[in-house]
Amino acid sequence: xxxxxxxxxxxxxxxxxxxxxxxxxxxxxxxxxxxxxxxxxxxxxxxxxxxxxxxxxxxxxxxxxxxxxxxxxxxxxxxxxxxxxxxxxxxxxxxxxxxxxxxxxxxxxxxxxxxxxxxxxxxxxxxxxxxxxxxxxxxxxxxxxxxxxxxxxxxxxxxxxxxxxxxxxxxxxxxxxxxxxxxxxxxxxxxxxxxxxxxxxxxxxxxxxxxxxxxxxxxxxxxxxxxxxxxxxxxxxxxxxxxxxxxxxxxxxxxxxxxx
Length: 260
Ligand code: GLP
Known about the structure:
30% of the residues lie in helices and 18% in strands. By secondary structure, the protein is of the alpha/beta class.
């Protein structure tokens, strides 16, 4: 795994956006796996800036979002689909037919999950999967538990995860759906490359679990240790619980170290 520790959140967002731009330059028809959440806001802002500067061309790219709430229409402004439209898709040159989402309103949930898996396959797989992480170590909506699901599935959200999503629901926990559709762990781990971004001290424990050497369903993010091409980009606060030896490697501007 590669680790970059940035002095501040803005630097982490910039570093991740640059990797996306480089991916598009190297392979214009890339398939990007994309997350939602506050962490992604700064990254999308920076990608939009790079696009405006002619440094990120989405005309041939495809995107597959990680997850979506069950029960909201794609037009619902609280859906992840609407979030992506607002913060990224309508601000870059991606053809609407290249944007792919799980349908949280599908009647046949299993059929919808299978459709998404087949779609990703038919696109040739995900070239670059961008990830955030929940404070409890969830990725996508793969919550900690006794077992994790490999493939795209219907997920029950923990109270903590629902609470961290209240921002989209005017702060009202009761309005946050209890279920969602999410790519599974294997779906995520099959991406050719993974970039995970974590900012702020609430993520320090999850980041620590990524580097402690133990792979456990108690922290789904720890499974990224099994992937051969993962770049973890964090700010100082999210790096706070990493071993001193790793943290010392980052005085000044982003320091990238090879870990493992
Ligand atoms: C949600 C999403 C995750 C995301 C997480 C972190 O639960 N399903 O994919 O990584 O939020 O969100 P934030 O960046 O707002 O902390």
